[in-house]
Fold:
Amino acid sequence: MQSILEKQRAAFRAEPNPSYEVRDDRLKRLAEMITQNADEIADTVSEDFGHRSKIETRLADIAALLTEIKHTRAHLKKWMRVERRPVALQFKPAKNEVRYMPKGVVGIISPWNYPFQLAISPLIAALSAGNRAMIKPSELTPRTSELTKRLLGEIFDEDLVAVVTGDAKVAQEFSALNFDHMLFTGSTKVGRYVMEAAAKNLTPVTLELGGKSPTIIDYDYPLKTAAERILSGKLLNSGQTCIAPDYVLTPKDQVDATVKQLTKVCRRFYKNIHDNDDYTAIISEQHFARLNGLIEDAREKGANVIEIYPEEAKTSSNVRKMPPKLVTDVTPDMAIMQEEIFGPLLPLVPYESLDEAIDFVAERPHPLALYVFSDNKIVVERTNNELLAGGVAINDTLMHITQNDLPFGGIGDSGIGAYHGHDGFLTFSHAKATFRQSKINGRKMLFPPYGKSIERVLGFLT
Structure:
């Protein structure tokens, strides 16, 4: 890994600020590679999961990446322009400018839940900003990791883009390398270790973490619409999405009606689970056991676990496919209300007033996403104005991440920094400030020895 890093550093020194044409060509090659290998990518991701919906891979990985590249290529020339900045009156006719420069070699540590998309999306931003990149994909999706390495190796030399595969020990060594910037996507727990390792090199980091993303349903909002949009976001990738709705705050007198609508909509979306090609498996036995552990802990502490598919609760015709479940009567001491769920389990929390709902969210770590279902302007304004979250979607779920003109990132326990689109370009660029002095200026008035002239200058400045 160190030799690859040194090779990329040498290549960066030889080409410290690639032209627009060079960057655009790299993005073009990346888009062509994704398009030409879309079927193989979908097949390989599915193999790693045991079963992953091909439609979900085409939608959340292939289409999302191609849209992001198209957006970046359309705007890159504008993003790269030298930006003129105002000059204070006392310094005129000097000029100020900001020049966005590549940082150098970027390290990208990507997770298993969207193993191709979350390796390539940061790469798009890094290449658009003119950097070189090393990628360490997850060991939990080894086939996709090897495919990513092969496909990128076919279009880029190792001194531009390199993929390093291996286990958690390799990831630990990777995070300790002296990168010019590092982006990590994964759990809050591991994010702390990555940040600690990066701190030893003073490497700036972008951490895309997770947490418990809440959903608030207002009293008068149509439950059928809310249920459809909540479940479409919750059950994408079988809940293994960092911005999936983690729990639902619903009016106390509407809990039963909410359960009824969620159940009805879920069974309409998925007629069955285990033999359904549209429904994705849990990534590993370990994670499958963890989710079952959350359910058992909740049951033991008094929760009501509602089986949406009771006829399939005990069957195992398809490995690691967990039927969606609703959980009511939850309490804060339950693990399901403390840990990020990352699976098809959805707790419902009753509330009596908007103040109570806002306080419930505010008392917990800032989430990566906040979802509010309301047509009441006061409710929307209060929740959006009073609650901190990485991003917000009103009357929908997940859709804010698909907006290439919006930054994606968390705050506090849910992350540091942001990327996507222009914000990704800025994250991987250094905004280099430049002051250009004019031939005619009053600079000599600031030279020592200090006398009456400096007093006049100070009087003018203050």
Observations:
- The chain has a mean pLDDT of 96.
- The longest strand covers residues 95-102.
- The first helix runs from residue 2 to 14.
- Residues 214-402 form a domain with the Aldehyde Dehydrogenase; Chain A, domain 2 fold (CATH 3.40.309.10).
